[in-house]
Specification:
204 residues, alpha+beta, Pilin-like, Fimbiral protein pilA, transmembrane
Length: 204
Amino acid sequence: MRALKRYDRRGFTLVELMIVVAIIGVLAALAIFGVRRYLASAKSSEAKNTVGAISRGAVAAFERETSNSEILPAGGSSAAATHSLCASAEAVPTTVPSGGKYQPRSGPDEDFEHGTETEGWPCLRFAMTQPIYFQYHYYSGARVPEQTDPPAISATNYFEAGAVGNLDADTPPVYSVFTRLGAVDDATGQLTVATQVHIEREYE
């Protein structure tokens, strides 16, 4: 009985305590890494979803038939309806947010309200009112300049929707870039959009 009692009162050795502390440290490091990656993924999801929405707006705008207003003589015929891409939009905001969010302005001719029925964001019928982590672009016949390895394109009539961010606010900035291309086939006149968003440095 005395031997059993002495054994019951024995404490942890230093080695056992060090092993427990090491295990807790490893688990804490993994948890911190997982949380950071989760937060970064949530931010990059904003860019992916928004670039997709801008692309859908470009497709819808192209599919709308455009006809000139004409006064026809008796027996005359109007010109055929045409399809065309929206002209480029100004980037919103004008500079890439650095680790924070930008609140879009919603006044007349500001941010996503800037443009016309054939140009910019109103042509795309696209707008955002909630704070955003990224600078958003829509270029017709041009590319997002922050890309280092852009996908190739041979078409002359195309658009590129894009998002550029600096989520970790590093200096000098290393940008994360999300883009999606759409091109009009010269032979058929059909608009085709890339199968997925092209991503460079997703968590920067």
